[in-house]
Every structure is written in structure tokens, then in C-alpha cells.
């Protein structure tokens, strides 16, 4: 018997991570100028893959944005990492895709950048492409993703609430014993000054591509899934903020993004490529925010990544693909029942010293 | 009204983390040759501090042991880090103490090493000393720790179950809203070959010095403590194993040790110096264990660190110190009641692909 | 007037770097099992580019070889770096090419690996591809390199003395004010035990792709070239050894490879992607060589890289390409005259403590 | 026969490194607010050691200064490294001393900081102390350096030309086959905007503690010394600038400082702890300088470190110490003769693309 539940975000199920305020969409797109696009490939019995693009519009008029990276477990094919770390910046949108398609996606991103108006004499591009292995549900060796798929993801990128679950680079992924996928969330806090957004509020938005092993925990309550059959998985996390943080500070944010995987039960297996990239859209018209402003940003990352990972699971749909393999969506009913039976869960709220 | 509960380890309270087998002591000393010693300083109203020594006997006849390091958040005064990383080894016992005493402890450790028989012409020592800030309960600026205290910790180091809770370098620490301290735990697994211990079993033991902020979670159940009043805290984790892992592999183990802090509710605040050191006692008489052997070791680290952190809290005793400040031990009764009210907790068990 | 000199290796000109013994070919191919192949693209007026492949035969029967990386200046698009660092290994040949072709070369290398016998079910490949910007002499935006070119470089890889100078990935490069290209050299020393080669001798071979700015120095004597007109250059260095060094030790070797660039006058400009990869072909049938064995290996790397960089220049031929730009080969006569006028040069010989 | 030459700086001997303008003192003290102090211990036959303090006055009114670190070879006992890297700053003066005295010097620096007015409630200090092994000329195991010696170095720190050669932390060191010691140099360039100094000029000053093996090269000309008898040496380099660079940029500067060691013939032996720290005194009242401003700063670091290393040798005096060991100062006459015999040296001048 198959689940026929409608996809729901965590908050639609009444599941709230932490006590911090979200942005209007509770999504990475709450950071002004950040758009998300997906190309989803579902072809025949064997292809369940795709591309997801995170596009900061600020790159239209600035050569690069400050960025930091954390490699939680470097068993992955992250493209662009050394230049990102050296210069502390990204100069292209960030793309997510399937392991064996990484390099043709990167090549297509190079093509895209070279074609942009005003870049007719550019001779160097550092594309940012991360990946995860969707080979359990998709015929990954077929490498079906083409430059057109990449361009479609970039062109279709839009503001507002991004599609989540079994879409884009999350079409064929699985996490914590269930069908995984794309998830997003955001948090806002005040106190920062001189940020890109008005009124001094700082927004932190995250997007995840979930594909890793462990035992799912929803607000701390374990939800038994199926053991991972797949090796070489990964979790890629993209953090965007309009807070004027510099590259070093952003790398500290990126670290917390990977740390947050533990909150939903990641087992940090050695074959998983666990990466986080954090970038800032703030105009570089002053010194970076003081280090103390990082504390609410750290807490925001921890909360937002936990919720985005839950969204990636709750929004995913049961998928059958390559070799007849199936990954089942987690049953919302099972989760809600478990939460009801663990009333201690209600008082959840990661409080940090920065607020009270 | 003050708690008068007797200190208890997690398992004495019926709280079991994961499903893996422990060593005989469920302690870092289950790794053959590893001894632990404490000097505890409780003087007058203001001094609540100490030194903890982790002493691998293998250093008696080998110049150094393979070791790896992970800096989760480098806001700390870890001594010996760059040489540890460059050469992939430790050449002294590892000492833990209070922030402002770090360097006199390191100096005393140098004295200790120079005095050892056979080292009469040694001209260089790379002492390993890590620290945490116990300035809320202890007059840290007084720096009361002397070379004699250091030598006492080293000389008293013994096999068997180490003292836990408010002892040694954990005398004045606090974690997750409660009194913190020293905790330890271990795990064993089979499958490895060529290890120091007989029968091919590999032991992973950990010792923690807990002193960080966040919301305590016991097997996922939140236990409300008091907000941290203190800044500049740290969590130092020492991992020992008799598995023949090399420095690179040990640094991967160390990374999981810091990741495990999230399992008990760490908020990974920016002012915390979160470090893990992992070393191997195995004789270097063959190639390192294959990478696949790391999977059960990773899972063992995650479980053992979680349990050691719980032990550090459950074994701690309410302490009043500097400035009349008090850190309360977590109430076992409060924890057990919360667990009873969350029956979903029973099926806990971090399973990884590497076993079952 | 144009130079019409025949390409000559440094030693053919009587220029000897250091006092250490070379391997039979004075080339990276002196490490048994290491082959080198080039595809050189010279098409019309605008295309001066190519691919160079370093192929360790040991990968035919072993999944991976121990490897280390050093990023001297990360302004480059090195593919495969994070997994190389995490696992301490390479699992593919190393390819060198032009910046904007990096990802299609990486994609072709993935295709090549997937097609190898016995890899029919492999779902993950970490290709190693490094690059440099040859956009001054070649129409880099045209990205003329195809999968066929990559396969040709891999298939044609052979033992013996590799072609040097304006070939393969060095076809369109320039260094230190002159035409640059591919160069190679090697050194041998005894004292190691348990190495892949017989008789306990250890061979260290290097191959460079030279493309960076500075003032050429030959055995310390400055040779005035033309200022660099090009930005975004790089120097990629591949070090192979049959010494049984582990990943950490190999990363120490890689560091010295970049340090050696200073010996020929590199100015370590910020836009240069300066990378070194070191790998070992030794069978993993014992513990790694003791750290002391690294000293002669360090000295060998310093000497061999210096000589390989000289070879890359002395073997290069004056090249005119994209936009009518020309890079002139350094005049051997000019170099030899300068050396004659600086008789102090004769006593060159970098001696280290590790030998006599 | 012993040399009785008077100490001379490189420029007093007519030896000029590069073509860039120096500051008024050609010293690290050309960076406004940076003072240098030494305590020199020459006691009896066996003690030849000391302490050198680099004191930025800006720390009187700011908690910390932006700073970056590069570990060229981590075989050393650098204190303060992980917090420097995490927060991208130094909060104390930088001290240099002898290996086995490192920790008592660090402890004394902690005492000094705690005593400063306005710091009565400070509970955490991250002292910056680096070291080198002077055990060939000094009875390093005696550890004669006391807190008073440290305070004397800090208190005596002054502007103007620092003492060089066999003073302070360079009293007992040796480099490249000769007596080593302390050296300093500086460079200035225009083009930067918004710097701490007026008129937009940026100053880069360096101070070195030379103690490493290799074959001395003066402007490329080899000068034969004696092989190193000592192991565990180090080269510590401190770079100060008034350019408003951030921590990431400063770490790029620090990298070039270590690279520059190759210019005087360093062999980068495995036992040497080669470290560079770079800090900026500029007020944090705007965004960091653009990355392009780093190019002249890189070139300045390369030139200044090369010259400072030469100064450390040319200013050193022949020293006999522990065990009757002697390190001979390099003969100025020998150097000048070698340079005369290599007329090609005259056109020295490391030019980079950033200037012309």
C-alpha cells in the first residue's frame, strides 16, 4: 500500500523548529534578490534527477559576492571550492545536481556566464556546482542532464516560495531512511546595522539538498525509516544572508549549517559529501558586521537548516526509479503520531545567549 | 532547596545512548594503556578549578602516537595544534585545564617531559594542552594552578573508571544550563584487523570537558536549564582508540566528536572553543585500517561523545564559587520524569550502515 | 628577427640544478608505472591549447593511490580537491588543460573511467583536473577541447621521456616573461625501505605546467623577459613518487613543490592558481616511510621542480596565436651568456641535512 | 681567526633587494604605532637567548587587530594560532622566544595583559607567542627566561630602528650556515585608499627571527656556509601593515612571507617551524581594500622579507655558547666579493604586474 498524502511543509503540519521569526516565505528567497529555479528530469523508468539553481541577482551588477565554505566531509565533487576559499567570494549562481553530471553542469554554467551581457571578454569563470549521488533512484551513469536543462533552471529561477521535495536536484535523493529532496527555510532577526535590507533586520535563508543516512529525528523524536541502501551520498546546504558578513564570518555560518544536520539525525557517514556554502548579498559599503552579530545568525542557521531538512522530507513524494528501487516519503501521520506520544516535544526552542 | 542527589552515570539511571557495545569501564580507559588523572582545586570561596590528564602509556616506549585534530570553533587556546596537524601525532599526554592557566600548565608539562628518563638531551617538546573558561565559578584571574598540580594529575593517572563530574578540569565548568564537568564513555566493535588489542576488536574511548551553552537534550528530550551567564566557554573532547588509524583518519574521527555535541543540544556559540583530538595507541606495524573500518568508529564516536557529555552532567554536583555564583546539577529526577513522559524515546539507537 | 633555436633541456645546455642523482629519463616517468600523454591543439590563428595526462598504471588494479594537495594560491579551478584532501587519495589520472575547458575535460575523464573494464557499476568518480589560463595565446572562450582530445591524451600516454615545452596543456602558456609550457624532471635517493621500486631507492618525479609571472632566474641569475600581459595564470605541479608516503606526508611534499616556484623567480601574484598534487605509487603493504625519509624527498622536490620549470621554458618554442599575440621562447644564448658572466653560479647545489 | 667586522644592514653594504621604496627606517616600525623591544640574555658560557616583542599601540584602544596566519611547516609551538584563525585577529602583542620557553613567555604575556588598565574583569586572553630552537648555542633546557624578561621586552619596545642581529629572540639562532638573528625591513606603495596613514600610501613592514637550514643566496649568489648541526629550527615572520586589509587578505600576505624564504636559499626542511603572522593597524572604518591592492603588498612582502632575512645575517655577530658551539657571522667581505664576481646581479629587481 502506498502513501497518497499531499506534500506539506513542516509548519503546515504544526511542526515548528525553534522560536525565531521566519521571513515571509520561510525560504531562502526571503533574502532579497535571491531566486531559485529547478529543472526536474523524470524520464521513463530510470531517470529521476535534475538541477537546482540558487541565483543571487546582485551578481548582475557586482562581479562577486562574499562567501564562505565548510567541508564537513569532503567525499564529494564540489566545483569551485579552492577559489571560493582563496578569494572569499562566489562569482556565479550556485547549482546543485547529480554526482556524475557535475562537470557538464559546471561547463553549462560557464557557457551561461560567458554569454551574459558585458562579459564578452571575460576569460575566467569559477562556477559553483555541488552534487549528490542519486544513483539509487536514477540511472546516474546515463548522465542525462544537458546544458539546456541547466539553462532552464537558471532562466526559470524566481522569487517567492521555491518548489520543495522531489524536484530539481532532489528528484532522486533519499535521506534518513525516506525519500529526500529539496527543502528551504529562513529566519530573521534585528540588531544588525547597515545591512542590505531596510530597517536593520537581517535575514538568513537556507536551501538544502538532502541525501544522507541516519535515523530521522523530528523535534528530537525518532522516526524509524529504512536503512540506506546507497553509498556515496551527500548533503549540500546553501546559506544566503543580507547581513554584511565577510568571507571569514560566512565560513563560520557555513560550519553551523553542517553541524545542524545532527539535529535531524544525520550519522555523518564517511561516504557522504557534506558541504555548506554561505554568501552575503549585502552591499560592500562598510565594514563587516561586528562578530557579536553572528550569534543570532548562528542560531538562525541552526534552526533554518533543521527546518529545511524536515521540509525536504515532508514535501517529498514516494518515488520509484532505476532498477525498480523505491524511496518512500515519510508518513506525516506517523510523524504526528510520534510527536503526540512524546508530549515533551512541545517546548522545543533552541535558545541562545543572544536573545532571551 | 538544594539537590542532594548522588552522582550517577547515565547507564545507572537507565539511560543508554545507542545500541553499540561499551568497553568494560565504558570509559576512555578501556583503550589499553590509557590512564586518566585529575587534580581538583577547591579552595576557599573562589577557587573551583583543576587539571585533567589523559596519559597514553604507549608514549613510554614510542616517541609519538598518530593523532588528528578538529577545530569546530577555534575560539580557544589549544596548545600544540600546529605541530599535531603537521606531523599527525602527539608526543605528550593531553592535559585539560582553565583558560588563563593554560600556559603554566603547558610549561609544567614541558618540565615533566624533559625529566623523563632517556630524555636528557631532548631539546623540543610539543605539549598538548586544551582549556575551557571556568571563570563563572572560579577566580580564573588568580591562576592558582601550579606545576605541582600538573605533576599530581600526571602521577595519579590510573586505569579503571576515571572520576567524572565536578573534578579536575571540570571542577568549575557548566554546560547546557547546568553544572558540567568531566565525562567519559566508550564503544567497541569487531571487524578491524591488526589492531593493538587482541581478537580484532577495536575500542573507541572518549573523555569530555563540558562547558558550553545550548538547551540540554537527553535522548532527544529537552530539559530546561538556566541560560548561560558566561562567555568564552569551550568543549574539549579527547578520543582514544586502539584501532590502527592514521592521522588523516583520526582527524575524521575528531570531526565527528564535535558534530556529536549537537546531539545533546549544543548551540555552537561563537565564543566557545570546541576542539577534538583523536589519537591511536596501535603499534605502527602495518598499513592503517581500510577506510571502511572508519564507519563503525564514526558511529562509536557519535554515541560515546553523547554519552560522555551526559555523564559529565549527571555526575556533576551543584557548585557554588567565585562571586557567590552557583551552577546547579541537573536533577536526575527531572530528567527521568521527562523521559517517562516521552515514551517515544525508548527506541533510540543510531544505526549506521556499517553494522547490523 | 625570430629565434630559431632548437629546444633543449636544461642539462643539454649544461645547466644542472642541484647535486642529486636523476632518474634515467630525468622525468616524472622515472617513477615506474607513470605515463604521460599530450593532445596538442594548434588550429588556425587562434587556437593554441591542449590536454596533458599523467597516468599511473597502478590505478589499473588499485582503486586509488595515496595523494596530497597544496593550494599555494587558490585562484584556480582545480577539480577534485575536496575529496582528494578528505580521503587522501586520487582515483583517476591527473589531467591538465585550459581554464574554460576544465569541466568538459573533467566530464570526459568521468566518461573514460566509467568505460574501463570492471567499472560497469561504478556510480561515483572524482576526476582530478587542473588548469591554467592560456587566453593570451589561445581563444580560450572557444573552448575547443573535446572528449576525443581527452581520450587521445589518455590513450597516447607512454613511458619514456615526455614531450616538453609548447605541447599539451602547455601549448599556449607563458611564464616569467617568456613562452612557458610543460616541463619535467626527477631525482632519486637511497635510504628508503619498502618502496615500490627495487633496491630501496626512492624516485621523485615532477611535471609542471608553467604559466605565471615574475622575473626568470636561472641558477639564481636573472634573465630579463617581458612583463606579463595576462591575468589569471596558474602553475600546476604534479609530483609522483614510488616512496611509500601517506597522504599527510605527500601533502608536505606538495607544499615544497609550490615553494620551489620561488627559485626560478615566481612573484606569487594573486591571480595565479598555484597548486601541487603529490601521489605515491607504492603498494600499501606496510606502514608509511618514517618522517625522516621525507628530508631527501623534500630536497628532491625542490630540485626537480626548479629543473622542470627551466625545462618548460628551454623546451618551449616561440608561439604566435590569438589576437596576434606572441610569446617568445627564452634565448638559450642569452641564458648561457648571463651564466658565463656570473661565474659564482657554478657552485650551485642545494644541500640539505639529510644527505652528506 | 675570527671575524671582527662591524654589523651592517644590507643597504649599508650596498645590497638592495628589489626596486620598491622603503619606509624611513626600512623596518617594521615604519608602520605607525608598531614598536619593537628586545630582552637579550647572554649569561655565562651557556645562555644565549632572549625575547622579542612586536607591540602595536593600536591595541591600547582597540580590543583586537585583524590578522592572518600561514603555517608553512607546522613543526613549531606557535601559541594562539587557532583563535587567530577563527576570529581573524590578534589581541596581544606578538612575542618571539626560544622553543622550551614558549609557555612561560605566553604565561607572562597573559599576566601583562590582565594588568593593563581597563582589563580588570577580562577573563580570557589569547597570547601570540612564536618560537624557534636556539638549543645549539644556548642551554635551552635551562629555560632561563622569566616573566621579568618578558615584561622588559614589552616595556622597552620603542619606535625607530630596532636592534637587529644577535639580539632578543635571535640571540642564539643560526640560519643558512651562519649566525642568524633578528632582521627587519619595510616597503611603501601608493594606490591604496582609506588607509590608516595619510596620503593614501600603504606601508608593509616585516620582522624575522631567522633560524633555518639551506644554502645562503644573496641576490641569487650562493654563499657557502656550514651545514646545520641543529634540528628543530624555525623561521618566524611578523608582517605589519597600515593597509586596511581583512583577515583573509592578511593570510594571503602571510603566505608570501613564507614563500620569500626561498629567495635566500631556505631548504624548507621538515623540522623547521615556518610561520608568518600578518596584522593590520588600519582603523576598521570602512570595507577592506580591494583585492587588487594586494598585488603591490604581495611584492612588498617578498622584497621586505628577503631583505629582513639578509639583515638578520649581516647584523649578527659570531657567537659561541652552549657546549662550546660557535655560529659564525657571514663575512661581509665574502659576500661582497661573490657579488662582484657575479656582475649579473646588478639588475636585480623583482617587478610585478602591479607597478612599473
From TrEMBL, chains A, B, C, D:
SUPFAM superfamilies assigned to the protein according to its UniProt record, in alphabetical order: DmpA/ArgJ-like
One Pfam assignment: Peptidase_S58
Taxonomic superkingdom: Bacteria
Signal peptide: none
Protein family according to the UniProt entry: Belongs to the peptidase S58 family.
Protein name as catalogued: P1 family peptidase
Native source organism of the sequence: Paractinoplanes hotanensis
Taxonomic lineage: Bacteria, Bacillati, Actinomycetota, Actinomycetes, Micromonosporales
Amino acid at each position: 500500500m502506498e502513501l497518497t498524502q499531499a506534500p506539506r511543509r513542516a509548519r503546515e503540519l504544526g511542526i515548528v523548529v525553534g522560536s525565531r521569526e521566519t521571513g515571509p516565505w520561510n525560504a531562502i528567497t526571503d533574502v532579497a534578490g535571491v531566486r531559485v529555479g529547478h529543472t526536474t528530469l523524470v524520464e521513463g523508468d530510470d531517470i529521476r534527477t535534475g538541477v537546482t539553481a540558487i541565483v543571487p541577482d546582485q551578481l548582475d551588477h557586482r562581479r562577486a559576492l562574499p562567501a564562505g565554505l565548510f567541508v564537513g566531509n569532503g567525499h564529494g565533487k564540489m566545483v569551485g571550492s579552492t577559489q571560493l576559499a582563496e578569494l572569499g567570494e562566489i562569482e556565479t549562481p550556485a547549482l546543485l545536481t547529480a554526482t556524475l553530471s557535475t562537470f557538464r553542469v559546471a561547463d553549462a554554467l560557464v557557457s551561461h556566464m560567458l554569454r551574459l551581457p558585458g562579459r564578452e571578454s571575460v576569460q575566467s569563470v569559477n562556477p559553483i556546482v555541488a552534487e549528490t549521488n542519486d544513483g539509487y533512484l536514477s540511472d546516474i551513469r546515463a548522465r542525462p542532464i544537458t546544458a539546456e536543462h541547466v539553462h532552464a533552471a537558471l532562466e526559470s529561477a524566481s522569487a517567492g516560495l521555491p518548489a520543495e521535495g522531489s524536484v530539481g536536484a532532489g528528484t532522486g535523493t533519499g535521506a534518513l531512511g525516506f525519500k529526500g529532496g529539496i527543502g528551504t527555510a529562513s529566519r530573521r532577526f534585528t540588531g544588525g546595522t547597515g545591512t542590505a535590507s531596510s530597517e536593520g533586520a537581517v535575514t538568513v535563508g537556507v536551501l538544502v539538498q538532502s541525501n544522507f543516512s541516519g535515523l530521522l529525528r523530528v523535534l528530537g523524536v525518532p522516526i524509524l525509516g529504512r536503512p540506506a541502501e546507497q553509498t556515496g551520498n551527500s548533503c549540500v546546504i546553501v546559506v544566503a544572508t543580507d547581513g554584511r558578513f565577510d568571507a571569514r564570518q560566512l565560513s563560520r555560518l557555513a560550519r553551523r549549517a553542517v553541524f545542524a544536520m545532527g539535529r535531524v539525525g544525520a550519522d555523518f557517514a564517511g561516504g557522504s559529501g557534506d558541504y555548506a556554502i554561505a554568501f552575503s548579498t549585502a552591499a560592500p559599503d562598510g565594514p563587516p558586521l561586528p562578530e557579536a552579530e553572528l550569534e543570532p545568525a548562528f542560531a538562525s542557521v541552526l534552526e533554518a537548516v533543521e527546518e529545511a531538512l524536515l521540509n525536504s522530507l515532508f514535501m517529498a513524494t514516494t518515488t520509484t526509479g532505476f532498477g525498480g528501487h523505491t524511496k518512500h516519503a515519510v508518513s506525516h501521520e506517523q510523524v504526528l503520531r510520534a510527536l503526540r506520544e512524546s508530549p515533551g516535544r512541545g517546548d522545543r526552542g533552541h535558545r541562545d545567549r543572544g536573545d532571551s
